[in-house]
Amino acid sequence: MPPTSETLTAERILATTEEVLRRHGPAKATVVDVARALGVSHGSVYRHFRTKAELRGAVTKRWLDRTTQVLAGIAADGERDPEARVREWFAALFAAKRHKAGGDPELFATYQVLVGDQGEVVGQHIAELTGQLTDIVRAGVDAGVFTAQDPATAARALFQATGRFHDPGYAQEWQQPGVEGEFEAVMDLLVRGLRARD
Amino acid sequence: MPPTSETLTAERILATTEEVLRRHGPAKATVVDVARALGVSHGSVYRHFRTKAELRGAVTKRWLDRTTQVLAGIAADGERDPEARVREWFAALFAAKRHKAGGDPELFATYQVLVGDQGEVVGQHIAELTGQLTDIVRAGVDAGVFTAQDPATAARALFQATGRFHDPGYAQEWQQPGVEGEFEAVMDLLVRGLRARD
What we know:
The structure is a homodimer of 198-residue chains.
Chain A: H1 10-24, H2 31-38, H3 42-48, H4 52-75, H5 82-103, H6 105-117, H7 119-142, H8 151-161, H9 179-194
Helix pairs in contact in A: 1-2, 1-4, 2-3, 4-5, 4-7, 5-6, 5-7, 7-8
């Protein structure tokens, strides 16, 4: 058993849970496996996460949050003009998803199973992302470069219209030649749709 | 056995194949089942469709073509202005897909299995649909109401940006409250992106 001298934090449990999921697969991985890998009793794990479902929800959120944090920086960067921010935000989202899907396909597949079971966690994740987008759209409206009656509605439309480039159901398409050009064409159309006019 | 006096046409075989698929499911349905339902020998079926794969491809194409034909009429209607035609074309596509998915969920699920195996047939279907859209976009450019450097690229971007409202992978979303409003918001953004400006 590995040494247990390190303090058992929620983050340590989640990092180990990810490794256990990778090794055993989402169907077989148990809390006992996680505790064994940490060299602690399963009771110690349950003190941080009351149920297996809660642990799986937390590890899924951690996986999704890795993308959210990168994007938050772009959304909050008031120095850059809103149109560049929208483009960069979506390019970063697409890049992060492609990297996750292509760089470690097994872990990606594992998390797709978890994501399918975690409707609430996924819903919160999407709400957070469209919230970031709403901030950018609102900044563009305030600056007079975007037209949108309701920034939140426009942000949701932008997010849904770009699903091909971030919805994991399309992961296979992300490896196809020409997908970059397709992404640019969709972004061009959407950004033109956002621009203000008289 | 039903009477065989009627001429054995490709269309009769395909209509019966659809019924057999509905009854037995896509995994179990065989050419012998189709021949039996028609009251003919399986050799008679093979004279129209050389292989089981060819028969399955043809029945899938027939299913997909039902949508294409309705849309072709909208795309070709030069009387209506291009913006109204784009909106109506996508509304008809969404309505047709929702009708197929919601009206006969079992048959829809059956065809989703076939569609998954028929990459070439599906590719041709999508090429046909984006071809129709290209005609509408080009008419708009010619009339000076749309701006698009390349109508075919814009048409593909429109089609991909609306995937949520016609890609069968989203069929469950089509029953959610608010989906109509989401569709309208995406269409508003896209149509504004198409419009010409100085």
